[in-house]
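Revision sheet: structure tokens.
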Amino acid sequence: MESHFAMSSDMRIVDARYIDAGDYVIAQFRAVGIQDGPLLAFPASGKSFSLDVCEVWHFDADGLTDEGHNYSDGLGLLMQLGHLPAPQPRDPGERYSMSDNLATIGAIYEAFGKGDIPTILGHLADDVRWEEWADNTAQKAGVPWLQARHDKAGAGVLPGHG
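Predicted:
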């Protein structure tokens, strides 16, 4: 955390949204500011940044957070600040480019906003794995919407609802 505070004297949290899920709280927000200090090994760039963040917090019986996960685009942040180069245009022989993948994710979220599940499923591989990773404590705790699901049929329904 200290590295993020050191990188920007004017960092702000905007567009914050918090979702109560019992022992879990999901925080969605955007961190914005100017990098006027170092970020780990990267010197101040003087450039502005906008970083979308999602965090998942778990609370123990005493109401204290005992687990937290941060999901954000650190690579994109370093590109915004000029510390890493942006991806180069794809070679004609490449199957997909980063911009193709971004367009696909954009289409998925647009379809999600419309409740268009068939379009979402059309963008998924037949053997898609959803919410599957080692040591998923939410799954161990039985959080139904974070249970591992497999293939398009599993990804298209909320566990216990289909």
